[in-house]
């Protein structure tokens, strides 16, 4: 696949940026028109969670896609997709904290004791924080080799995100199984690369 010219890359990035905003636009529209269904909070949590994991897997698939399709420009989209993953995860966290915990830490403690998979999701988000905060050019330059080392955190974060989803399955295992297979394939592809980095 051809490498994009700077102009094409700029346009393609703008398109990807807008596409990634569409789920948010839909969620806001559905909330404003009161069409989130019978359980709006559940719908908000599930929609933001679904987009978080979809974007997470897509971000992790960029590197193998670059190798398979010899698409030199692919890596130029990874940072934006990674930041959108963090954005939708943070929105998911904000909705849970507001509508389930009601910003009440006693209530949060009870919920976490009853549903430990929420804590696993929170751990995934915590691991994503340093990645999000160091995703700017200045941090990349300042951290040099340590930037790549720090980004190894993405693997436990992805596994925790998957565990968070798989743990709460009550009826259909389809999504959890699909993400599980995709994640195993992605990790398998990365294994050798990771060994070189360490
Ligand atoms: C990378 C991080 C995360 C991802 C990818 C993610 C993804 C998801 C997904 C896809 C669902 C819907 C699962 C289903 O019904 O099939 C979900 C539900 C949920 N998530 Fe997360 N999540 C993440 C982090 C968090 C965090 C940080 C919290 C809060 C501390 C959280 C709390 C919840 C809760 C309360 C539910 C609803 C569970 C229920 O309906 O009983 N998640 N998450």
From TrEMBL:
Keywords: Cell membrane, Electron transport, Flavoprotein, FMN, Heme, Iron, Membrane, Metal-binding, Transmembrane, Transmembrane helix, Transport. Pfam families: Ferric_reduct. The keyword Cytoplasm does not apply. It comes from the Bacteria. InterPro entries: Fe3_Rdtase_TM_dom, MsrQ-like. It is a multi-pass membrane protein. It is found in: Cell membrane; Membrane. Its cofactor is FMN; heme b. Residues 48-161 form the Ferric oxidoreductase domain. Its main location: membrane. Binds 1 FMN per subunit. The chain crosses the membrane at residues 12-31, 51-69, 81-102, 117-135, 147-167, 173-191. Heterodimer of a catalytic subunit (MsrP) and a heme-binding subunit (MsrQ). Belongs to the MsrQ family. Part of the MsrPQ system that repairs oxidized periplasmic proteins containing methionine sulfoxide residues (Met-O), using respiratory chain electrons. Thus protects these proteins from oxidative-stress damage caused by reactive species of oxygen and chlorine generated by the host defense mechanisms. MsrPQ is essential for the maintenance of envelope integrity under bleach stress, rescuing a wide series of structurally unrelated periplasmic proteins from methionine oxidation. HAMAP family: MsrQ (MF_01207). This is Protein-methionine-sulfoxide reductase heme-binding subunit MsrQ. It comes from Zhongshania marina. The lineage of its organism: Bacteria, Pseudomonadati, Pseudomonadota, Gammaproteobacteria, Cellvibrionales.
């Amino acid at each position: 696949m051809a490498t994009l010219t700077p102009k094409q890359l700029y346009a393609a990035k703008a398109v990807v940026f807008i596409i990634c905003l569409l789920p948010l636009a839909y969620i806001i529209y559905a909330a404003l028109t009161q069409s989130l269904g019978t359980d709006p909070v559940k719908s908000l949590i599930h929609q933001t969670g679904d987009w978080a994991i979809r974007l997470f897997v897509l971000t992790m698939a960029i590197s193998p896609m670059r190798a398979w399709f010899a698409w030199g420009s692919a890596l130029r989209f990874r940072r934006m997709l990674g930041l959108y993953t963090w954005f939708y995860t943070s929105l998911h966290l904000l909705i849970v904290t507001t509508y389930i915990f009601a910003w009440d830490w006693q209530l949060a403690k009870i919920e976490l004791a009853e549903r430990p998979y929420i804590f696993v999701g929170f751990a995934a988000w915590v691991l994503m924080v340093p990645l999000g905060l160091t995703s700017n050019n200045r941090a990349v330059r300042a951290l040099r080799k340590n930037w790549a080392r720090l980004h190894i955190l993405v693997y436990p974060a992805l596994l925790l995100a998957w565990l968070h989803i798989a743990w709460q399955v009550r009826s259909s295992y389809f999504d959890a199984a699909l993400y599980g297979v995709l994640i195993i394939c992605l990790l398998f592809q990365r294994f050798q690369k990771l060994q070189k980095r360490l």
